[in-house]
C-alpha cells in the first residue's frame, strides 16, 4: 500500500478537517480488512436522493437496527438464536451478526427504511439549507441613486 502525506492538505485548507480525516482513514484501511458481509449497493435515485440496499436475507425487522450518529449511518443486525436444534448437512446462508458503517456527507439525512424480500432499503436525501444555496445578487448601476441621511449619494 502506498503512503500519502496529507500534511499539505491540512496546511492549505480551513474547515475541511473531517474530509481530510476521512481520506486519511480510507487510505489507512487496506482492502483486505474491509468486511464483505453483507453485500450492499449504493444507488443514486435522483439528483439529491440515494438508496442503500443491503442483502439481509433471513433477518426480520426486529433483528435489524439503523442508527444515525455524528454523520455516520450505522446498520447492525443480531440474529436471535434458533430455539430448535437443526442438523445441517450444508450451511451456506450466513445469518451472522453484522455492523456496517456509512459516512454521510453534510446535509444528508435518512428519510426511511424498509425490509422487503430479504433486502433492506434505506432512503437518503440531501437537503441543502436555504442559507447555503446559491443566490443571485443584483448589481446596482450608475443610474441608481442612493439616499443617505437626506442627501443623494
Largest sheet: 4 strands, antiparallel
By secondary-structure content and strand pairing, the structural class works out as mainly beta
Question: CATH class of the largest domain, anyone?
Answer: Mainly Beta
If helices are DSSP runs of H or I spanning 4 or more residues, what is the number of helices? 2
The parts where pLDDT drops under 50 for at least 5 residues are none
Number of strands: 9
Shape annotation: elongated
CATH topology name of the largest domain, in short, is: Immunoglobulin-like
Rg calculated over all Cα atoms: 25 Å
C-alpha termini separation: 65 Å
Please give the share of residues in helix. 10-25%
List the helices and strands in order. HHEEEEEEEEE
User: How many structurally independent domains?
Assistant: 2
Strand order of the largest sheet: 1-2-7-6
CATH architecture classification name of the largest domain: Sandwich
Beta content:
25-35%
What value does the average pLDDT take? 80
What features would you describe in this structure?
Helix content is about 10%, strand content about 35%. The chain has about 150 residues and is mainly beta. It has 2 domains: about 1-35; about 35-130, Immunoglobulin-like, CATH 2.60.40.790. The strands form 3 sheets. A 4-stranded antiparallel beta sheet has the order 1-2-7-6, with no helix packed on it. The chain has a 3-stranded antiparallel beta sheet with strand order 3-4-5, with no helix packed on it. A two-stranded antiparallel sheet has the order 8-9. The chain is elongated. It starts with 6 loop residues before the first helix and ends with a strand. The model has no long low-confidence stretch (mean pLDDT about 80).
Amino acid at each position: 500500500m502506498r503512503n500519502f502525506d496529507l500534511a499539505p492538505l491540512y496546511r492549505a485548507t480551513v474547515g475541511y478537517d473531517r474530509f481530510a480525516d476521512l481520506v486519511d482513514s480510507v487510505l489507512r484501511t487496506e482492502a483486505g480488512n474491509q468486511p464483505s458481509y453483507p453485500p450492499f449497493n449504493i444507488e443514486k435515485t435522483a439528483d439529491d436522493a440515494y438508496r442503500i440496499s443491503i442483502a439481509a436475507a433471513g433477518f426480520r425487522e426486529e433483528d435489524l437496527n439503523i442508527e444515525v450518529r455524528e454523520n455516520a449511518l450505522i446498520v447492525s443486525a443480531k440474529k436471535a438464536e434458533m430455539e430448535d436444534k437443526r442438523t445441517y448437512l450444508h450451511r451456506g446462508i450466513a445469518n451472522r451478526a453484522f455492523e456496517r458503517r456509512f459516512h454521510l456527507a453534510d446535509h444528508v439525512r435518512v428519510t426511511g427504511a424498509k425490509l422487503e424480500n430479504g433486502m433492506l432499503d434505506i432512503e437518503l436525501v440531501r437537503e441543502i439549507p436555504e442559507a447555503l444555496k446559491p443566490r443571485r445578487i443584483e448589481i446596482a448601476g450608475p443610474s441608481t441613486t442612493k439616499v443617505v441621511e437626506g442627501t443623494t449619494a
